[in-house]
Amino acid sequence: MKIHEYQARELLSRAGIPVPPARMVDSAERAEQAFRENGAALQVVKAQVFAGGRGKAGFVKLVSSAAEARTAAQHMLGNRMISIQTGPEGIPVRKLLVAAAVDIAKEYYVSITLDRNRGTPVVIASAEGGVEIEEVAKKNPAALIKEPLHPLLALPPFAGRKVASRLGFRGKQAGIVARLLVNLAQFYMANDCSLAEINPLVATKSGEILAIDAKVQFDDNALFRHPDIAALKDDTETDPLEV
Ligand code: ADP
Ligand code: MG
């Protein structure tokens, strides 16, 4: 089961991942209002759909006024989004996220997913974040860091520190990233996830570490154990015949 970015941000934030605040809206008027309420000079409007590749499709837009937020929202809600992850017919957009822009120094890729060959979840990380990880895997597989989870301990602190260090983090930031990875692994195991992906995880110019995009998917067969998560299900993007 897939959930939206705004839902994933909420869950990850509760799990101890540093996620900056954002507002979810479903109309251009509300987007304009959210921009005012957020108060930041530069903000981002993002389509809330299950497909990725939104940035390149023009469905992640930086805006610097309430009027611009409204225009961006009108465009996104009024057009189907076509990205490399949708078919050529695209998908409709019903919800948007409005959040303060972040002063990005560097983007990283961090995720946990099931490695079916090893039969265990693995952390996959790369200092080449932001771009599609499939491209990194194809062109520069050595840039991918992989660390298997332990079936009982998830990601022990020393393993978190190892990945943080291989990503190039030093000092205080290394400790923050290590803890973030440990928390992400615990979240993944506790909720029977099939994917918990942060792309990008960013280091800001002032040295903060923030998750500014999140994608979380769950094992459908384990949903009976998580009624709170099952309640987040949104079938509006799924083919009615599949539903
Ligand atoms: P997608 O993965 O669907 O393309 P993202 O949320 O990852 O969507 O956004 C794409 C890119 O837009 C990011 O890699 C980042 O460079 C930029 N971006 C996203 N959110 C923000 C933000 N809050 N502040 C600044 N830049 C952002
Ligand atoms: Mg992304």
Structural topology:
Layout: H1 5-14, E1 22-25, H2 28-38, E2 43-47, H3 54-57, E3 60-63, H4 66-78, E4 96-100, E5 104-115, E6 120-126, H5 133-139, E7 145-148, H6 157-166, H7 171-190, E8 193-204, E9 209-211, E10 214-218, H8 227-230
Antiparallel strand pairs: 1-4, 2-3, 2-4, 5-6, 5-8, 6-7, 8-9, 8-10
Helix pairs in contact: 2-4, 6-7
The protein binds adenosine-5'-diphosphate and magnesium ion.
Walk me through what this model shows:
The chain is α+β, with helices and mostly antiparallel strands and 243 residues long. Helix content is 33%, strand content 25%. The strands form two sheets. Strands 5, 6, 7, 8, 9 and 10 form a six-stranded antiparallel β-sheet that branches. The longest helix is centred in the last third of the chain and has 20 residues. It is globular, with a radius of gyration of 18 Å. The termini are close together. The model has no long low-confidence stretch (mean pLDDT 95). The structure holds adenosine-5'-diphosphate (ADP) and magnesium ion. The site of adenosine-5'-diphosphate has 17 residues, from strand 2, helix 3, strand 5 and strand 8.
